[in-house]
Specification:
With 115 residues, the protein is mainly β. It is built from no helices and eleven strands.
Amino acid sequence: QVQLVESGGGLVQPGGSLRLSCAASGSGVSRLAMGWYRQTPGKQREMVAIITSGGSTSYPDSAKGRFTISRDNAKNTVYLQMNSLKPDDTAVYYCNARYMVSTYWGQGTQVTVSS
Protein backbone atom coordinates (compact mmCIF):
# COMPACT_ATOMS: atom_id res chain seq x y z
CA GLN A 1 0.00 0.00 0.00
CA VAL A 2 1.23 3.48 -0.89
CA GLN A 3 0.06 6.75 0.63
CA LEU A 4 0.50 10.06 -1.19
CA VAL A 5 0.26 13.50 0.39
CA GLU A 6 0.40 16.63 -1.76
CA SER A 7 1.35 20.11 -0.62
CA GLY A 8 2.33 23.45 -2.09
CA GLY A 9 -0.87 24.59 -3.74
CA GLY A 10 -2.28 28.06 -3.32
CA LEU A 11 -3.15 31.32 -5.00
CA VAL A 12 -0.69 32.82 -7.47
CA GLN A 13 -0.86 35.64 -9.97
CA PRO A 14 -0.66 34.98 -13.71
CA GLY A 15 2.97 34.60 -14.73
CA GLY A 16 3.95 33.40 -11.28
CA SER A 17 5.39 30.10 -10.09
CA LEU A 18 4.51 27.36 -7.65
CA ARG A 19 6.18 24.14 -6.62
CA LEU A 20 4.02 21.21 -5.63
CA SER A 21 5.34 18.35 -3.54
CA CYS A 22 4.09 14.80 -3.18
CA ALA A 23 5.39 12.78 -0.27
CA ALA A 24 5.03 9.04 -0.75
CA SER A 25 5.10 6.42 1.96
CA GLY A 26 4.98 2.67 1.79
CA SER A 27 7.12 -0.05 0.35
CA GLY A 28 8.97 0.15 -2.94
CA VAL A 29 8.42 3.85 -3.58
CA SER A 30 11.51 4.10 -5.78
CA ARG A 31 9.99 1.53 -8.16
CA LEU A 32 6.89 3.62 -8.76
CA ALA A 33 6.12 5.65 -11.84
CA MET A 34 4.87 8.98 -10.51
CA GLY A 35 2.78 11.68 -12.06
CA TRP A 36 0.77 14.81 -11.60
CA TYR A 37 -2.76 15.20 -12.90
CA ARG A 38 -5.25 18.02 -12.63
CA GLN A 39 -9.01 18.37 -12.73
CA THR A 40 -11.53 21.19 -12.93
CA PRO A 41 -15.26 20.86 -12.28
CA GLY A 42 -17.10 19.13 -15.09
CA LYS A 43 -13.92 18.01 -16.85
CA GLN A 44 -11.95 14.80 -16.96
CA ARG A 45 -8.77 14.50 -14.97
CA GLU A 46 -5.80 15.18 -17.27
CA MET A 47 -2.15 14.33 -17.02
CA VAL A 48 0.31 17.20 -16.69
CA ALA A 49 3.57 15.36 -16.03
CA ILE A 50 4.90 11.85 -15.57
CA ILE A 51 8.26 10.57 -14.35
CA THR A 52 9.26 6.91 -14.50
CA SER A 53 11.25 5.04 -11.89
CA GLY A 54 14.27 5.58 -14.14
CA GLY A 55 13.75 9.33 -14.35
CA SER A 56 12.28 9.65 -17.85
CA THR A 57 9.70 12.41 -18.10
CA SER A 58 6.71 13.16 -20.28
CA TYR A 59 4.46 16.22 -20.60
CA PRO A 60 1.45 17.22 -22.66
CA ASP A 61 1.86 20.21 -24.96
CA SER A 62 0.05 22.43 -22.46
CA ALA A 63 2.81 21.87 -19.89
CA LYS A 64 5.93 21.60 -22.03
CA GLY A 65 8.42 24.36 -21.34
CA ARG A 66 6.53 25.57 -18.25
CA PHE A 67 6.25 22.56 -15.91
CA THR A 68 9.05 20.33 -14.67
CA ILE A 69 8.58 17.10 -12.76
CA SER A 70 11.38 15.67 -10.66
CA ARG A 71 11.83 13.08 -7.95
CA ASP A 72 14.06 12.64 -4.94
CA ASN A 73 14.07 8.95 -4.14
CA ALA A 74 16.04 9.52 -0.94
CA LYS A 75 13.13 11.63 0.34
CA ASN A 76 10.38 9.61 -1.37
CA THR A 77 9.13 12.87 -2.82
CA VAL A 78 8.07 14.02 -6.26
CA TYR A 79 7.95 17.67 -7.23
CA LEU A 80 6.15 19.68 -9.88
CA GLN A 81 7.72 23.04 -10.61
CA MET A 82 5.20 25.22 -12.42
CA ASN A 83 6.33 28.45 -14.06
CA SER A 84 4.58 31.05 -16.21
CA LEU A 85 1.26 30.04 -14.73
CA LYS A 86 -1.94 30.95 -16.54
CA PRO A 87 -5.54 31.22 -15.32
CA ASP A 88 -6.25 28.04 -17.33
CA ASP A 89 -3.87 26.19 -14.98
CA THR A 90 -6.37 26.66 -12.16
CA ALA A 91 -7.39 23.19 -10.96
CA VAL A 92 -7.06 20.64 -8.23
CA TYR A 93 -3.73 18.90 -8.74
CA TYR A 94 -3.40 15.24 -7.82
CA CYS A 95 -0.33 13.14 -7.29
CA ASN A 96 -0.43 9.68 -8.83
CA ALA A 97 1.70 6.58 -8.39
CA ARG A 98 1.65 3.42 -10.45
CA TYR A 99 3.34 0.04 -10.15
CA MET A 100 2.27 -2.82 -12.37
CA VAL A 101 -1.53 -3.02 -11.99
CA SER A 102 -1.76 -0.84 -8.88
CA THR A 103 -2.62 2.86 -8.97
CA TYR A 104 -2.65 5.29 -6.06
CA TRP A 105 -3.90 8.85 -5.73
CA GLY A 106 -3.35 11.64 -3.27
CA GLN A 107 -6.12 13.83 -1.91
CA GLY A 108 -5.33 16.77 -4.19
CA THR A 109 -4.17 20.33 -3.70
CA GLN A 110 -5.87 23.41 -5.10
CA VAL A 111 -3.96 25.72 -7.43
CA THR A 112 -5.62 29.00 -8.32
CA VAL A 113 -4.09 31.39 -10.83
CA SER A 114 -5.78 34.76 -10.62
CA SER A 115 -4.99 38.43 -10.32
